[in-house]
Amino acid sequence: MVRNLVTITLLTLVGMAVLYPYTAEAAFISGVVLDSENGQPLANANIRVVGTQRGVATDLDGRFLLQPSPLGKVSLEISNLGYATHTEELVVTVEGIKDLTVFLISDPVELDQVVYTATRTIQLLKNVPVATELITSKDIEQSEATTVSEALQNEIGIDIREDFAGQGVTIQGMDPERVLVLVDGSRVIGRVDGSIDLNQLSTQDVQQIEIVKGAVSTLYGSEAIGGVINVITSRNTAPFSLGAQVSGGGYIPSQGNDELNRTRIHAPIAGSALDLSLGSEKTRFRSGLRFDTNDIMDSDPSTAHTEGVEGADKVTGFARLSHDITPPATLTLGFRTNQEEKLWIEDAGLQSVQVAYDDEEFNRRVDLSAELDCRPGWAEVYSLKIYRSQNTHDWAKYTQTDNRIRRDFSESDEEYLEIGGQATRNFGAAHRVIFGADVYWWDIEAHNLMSSALRSDFNAKINAWDAFVQDEFILNPRFTLVPGVRYEQHEVYGVHISPKISAMWKPWDSIRVRSSVGRGYRAPSSKELYYTFNHASAGYIVRGNPDLEPETSISYTFSVEHTYKDRSTSRISMFYNDMENLIDFDSLGVTEEFYTGIYQYENIVSAWTRGVEIERTFLVGNNWRYGIAYSYLETRNRETDQELMRRPKHSARFLVNWHPEPWNFRLWARYTGAMWFQDRFGTDDQVSNEQTNPYTLWNLAVSRELPHGFRAACKLENLFDETDARYGPYRGRTALFILSYNYSTQQ
């Protein structure tokens, strides 16, 4: 049904375009864009002729020259990140229009926010042809989220998979290894058991988080089978700003937990942060540092294993320097780092006797980037970026007896280097074409030691290059077609081609119909290809397989969105993902040493996911915001004819936010239905006859603005202490108290 509906929609859009031809003669428009509060010029504001792809961006003085421009009645749409979109109605003659002055107002409603990820071009959320979901800095602040994983908790179609590999994200039933995570468009490396731990990514300098569901390999290559999460960091505009934050709290067990002393807070949590911004006419600098710590939170102290949250100490930091070399060119240098140490207790899973071990894990990632943005020229925007990331992951298991003898040890070092460029050019009034190319080198070295007798070493270097092109084609003012294709040459797998076509139809100003069909793929990781992980203390071993083939998918999406006076948004989305050659563990049997199993990576899974998502958000008055969403998901492993593991069929989200200044009250809930379950000694996507229990997590955040730039907040997560030591959730009721201070010369 979904395939037919998508096909009919695309054919309809192409056919209807004949009824709305677009022609125009040319003139010019020049002017300046200013901040309405302080009159300062706004650089990089976007000016677009409504109904066309003709547009331009302002320079450092906020000035622009739009040439050519259609004659007659013209609607200009002026937008900038963090400001409400402004529409200017003009009548353009052959003499053109000079010295137009436009004032933009800050604090836009969500639909006026600017997004980038879905098309790799700057667009308004309400006008982007590919369905995009957005978490704004205001959402992050009002939910008191300190990590990206916390910020994503209330998004429909997204589940945070929490285990000792970290907090990975599942999108529409697609595993974390099939979701690409980016920061400012650059790949985040350091997967453990296939997951990028989103708990390592701080929200300290995050402007917004953009989510695109379904295959996006045309623009982003491997790993983007299930979707892309792009964390966009903020840009400094203030001559001077200073921010600081301290927080503290812990786990508050319920009255029914007799194993714990209920007279005090357990598993203390603490955090502190500091950030600084400096700016001049041509140079801007922003930096920050954050420290977080929490003790082990165990929901079942009667067992040796930690059923809950590992103890962790974490330091994150960033620095960014931007300099305007010449009026049309800006150079940005970036630095980000994360350093984390985690502790927990693991038992060996033996049926005859309980053997407990102390587990210690160390993670460190350092990212460096240099980006040059130029405008104008042959194209409207040029971009050249060099990005290098280095990640270290060390893990050790010690006996709790015998003087803490090291039983297992593994270490891995990844180095990732990418050089990429992109150009965006308008061809006439109807075509906005982006051209891009990337080349990357990925080097992984790992060592595994079992006691002192068995050692395995691993080193692999993989490189690939690609080129892509995409055309945003306005067939007429109400129909936009976006075809694109990516060509990738991989060192191991040769050529891979990923096409995609998307379309948007606006039958009325308040309704948008979006549809897309695209191919996705994921090249096997070096570890899946070559690495042997010997974990005999827990009774299993996992072997790489150099004969693996890339995973492939076809993704279909269709959505209808209705907006009412920028006060409410309703959306219904349908999706279908067809996946082949999925890589999973294949059991080769058991031995006395490997009593849990001997496993090898194989292309053994053919599967599909499909479902429906229904969302509604609306504003009441100036202070109330409501949101409700429901997702229905079906999955199937064709090899076993069973549903995929750990995917809830039913899930729902609820939100109410009340903002009587200077207060803010936010209550939100997340319902997760039953799903098929295997314990930590099992493997994913195998047959199971055990289901988890459904649960609902309620959360509350209260904050108040105080004089002189201070702000106080309290957040209560999992209000009713809903935990299950076997199935999850594992994190019990926690309270966090926050005090922050912000000063800016723009205040």
Q: Gap between N and C termini, in Å?
A: 54 Å
* Distinct helical segment count: 5
The total of beta strands comes to 42
| Overall pLDDT metric | 85
Largest sheet: 22 strands, antiparallel, barrel
What structural category arises from helix and sheet content?
Answer: mainly beta
Radius of gyration: 26 Å
Low-pLDDT residue spans: 8-25, 258-263
Walk me through the structure.
The structure is a single chain. It contains 5 helices and 42 strands. The chain is mainly β. The protein has a 22-stranded antiparallel barrel. It has a 5-stranded mixed β-sheet with strand order 10-15-16-13-14. The longest helix is centred in the N-terminal third of the chain and has 15 residues, at about 1-15. The model is unreliable at about 10-25 and about 260-265 (pLDDT under 50).
Task: Please write out the topology.
Blueprint: H1 2-16, E1 26-35, E2 46-49, E3 55-57, E4 63-70, E5 72-79, E6 86-92, E7 97-104, E8 114-115, E9 123-124, E10 133-136, H2 137-142, H3 148-151, E11 158-163, E12 166-171, E13 179-183, E14 186-187, E15 206-213, H4 217-220, E16 227-233, E17 240-251, E18 266-279, E19 283-294, E20 297-298, E21 308-309, E22 311-326, E23 329-347, E24 356-374, E25 381-399, E26 406-427, E27 431-450, E28 454-476, E29 479-490, E30 494-508, E31 511-522, H5 526-530, E32 532-535, E33 540-543, E34 551-564, E35 568-587, E36 597-620, E37 624-637, E38 650-658, E39 663-672, E40 695-705, E41 710-717, E42 734-744
Parallel strand pairs: 1-7, 13-16, 33-36
Antiparallel strand pairs: 1-4, 2-3, 2-5, 5-6, 8-9, 10-15, 11-12, 13-14, 15-16, 17-18, 17-42, 18-19, 19-22, 20-21, 22-23, 23-24, 24-25, 25-26, 26-27, 27-28, 28-29, 29-30, 30-31, 31-34, 32-33, 34-35, 35-36, 36-37, 37-38, 38-39, 39-40, 40-41, 41-42
